[in-house]
């Protein structure tokens, strides 16, 4: 009986091992598929601006054009070059995050100071679309974050709020001090995001409407980068949206003092 007991135990163990191997191999297959899909998406994203650039460069090269047409085509080529360079910059940043070679240097940051410098940077962009930005941020709020990385996060979020706002729209940026967290909230009254797309907007290269986002110069990576950075600070980022009403992004970061340097660790 003792012998049979041992035998059964062994068989159970082997069964569990076989199950673990199957599930590991399924995980590997899934990862391989995800990688292939991502590579296919990247190729597509890189090819699209290049197709436009080549097409318009060919026309400019081979046809006699009026000054107005020439200017228009060159400006499309310039825009596409800019789109491509943003896309490559974003891809490079995400690749560095994946390899954990994207240091987070935390220091005590007064949010008011950070917000003021961001407002200075984004104002010319908002002015082009006549979008108004209202800021509420008490002077005393501080927390331990990497100011450069957070600047990047907030610029991405505000840039989206502007891109998907109508001309003359309003954006509100509010910083609140809650118990253990600092909360940063960005609200816009733009076109919003359909319910069915909302769960995927933090995915790499996901865009609600390809043509709409492309027209606005979106890379489809802004929110993915923001999420990586916020989570590397042990924070959370959430998005709420209603179509034709607007979008709200909430970032929560723990206030706790962390002095050491860390890298991305997923
Ligand atoms: P993109 O660079 O294309 O804007 P993001 O990763 O920043 O990419 O955002 C992903 C998608 O989520 C966008 O393509 C857009 O469709 C949608 N989105 C993000 N922010 C907003 C917003 N404030 N209002 C409406 N749609 C938004």
Automatic annotation (TrEMBL):
GO molecular function terms noted in the UniProt entry: ATP binding; phosphorelay sensor kinase activity
Q: Which terms are listed as keywords in the entry?
A: ATP-binding, Cell membrane, Coiled coil, Kinase, Membrane, Nucleotide-binding, Phosphoprotein, Transferase, Transmembrane, Transmembrane helix, Two-component regulatory system
Ranges in coiled-coil conformation:
14-41
Give start and end of each Histidine kinase domain: 41-257
E.C. number(s) listed in UniProt: 2.7.13.3
Membrane topology term: Multi-pass membrane protein
Q: Where is the HAMP domain?
A: 1-33
Q: Where in the cell is it found?
A: Cell membrane
Q: Main localization of the protein? A: membrane
Q: Which GO terms describe its cellular component?
A: plasma membrane
Give the reaction(s) catalysed: ATP + protein L-histidine = ADP + protein N-phospho-L-histidine
Name this polypeptide is given? histidine kinase
In terms of the parent sequence, the fragment covers 203 to 468 of 468
């Amino acid at each position: 009986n003792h012998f049979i007991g041992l035998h059964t135990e062994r068989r159970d163990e082997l069964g569990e091992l076989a199950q673990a191997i199957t599930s590991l191999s399924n995980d590997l297959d899934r990862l391989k598929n995800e990688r292939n899909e991502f590579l296919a998406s990247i190729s597509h994203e890189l090819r699209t601006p290049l197709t436009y650039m080549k097409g318009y460069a060919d026309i400019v090269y081979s046809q006699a054009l009026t000054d107005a047409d020439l200017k228009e085509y060159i400006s499309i080529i310039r825009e596409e070059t800019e789109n491509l360079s943003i896309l490559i910059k974003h891809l490079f940043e995400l690749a560095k995050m994946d390899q954990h070679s994207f240091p987070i240097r935390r220091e005590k940051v007064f949010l008011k100071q950070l917000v003021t410098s961001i407002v200075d940077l984004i104002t010319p962009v908002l002015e082009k679309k006549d979008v108004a930005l209202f800021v509420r941020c008490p002077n005393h709020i501080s927390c331990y974050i990497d100011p450069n990385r957070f600047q990047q996060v907030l610029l991405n979020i505000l840039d989206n709020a502007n891109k998907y706002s109508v001309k003359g729209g309003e954006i509100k940026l509010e910083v609140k001090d809650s118990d253990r967290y600092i909360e940063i909230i960005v609200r816009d009254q733009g076109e919003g995001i359909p319910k069915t797309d909302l769960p995927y907007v933090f995915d790499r290269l996901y865009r609600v409407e390809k043509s709409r986002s492309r027209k606005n110069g979106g890379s489809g990576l802004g929110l993915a980068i923001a999420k990586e950075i916020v989570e590397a600070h042990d924070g959370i980022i959430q998005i709420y949206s209603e179509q034709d009403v607007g979008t709200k992004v909430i970032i929560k970061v723990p206030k706790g003092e962390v002095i050491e340097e860390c890298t991305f660790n997923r």
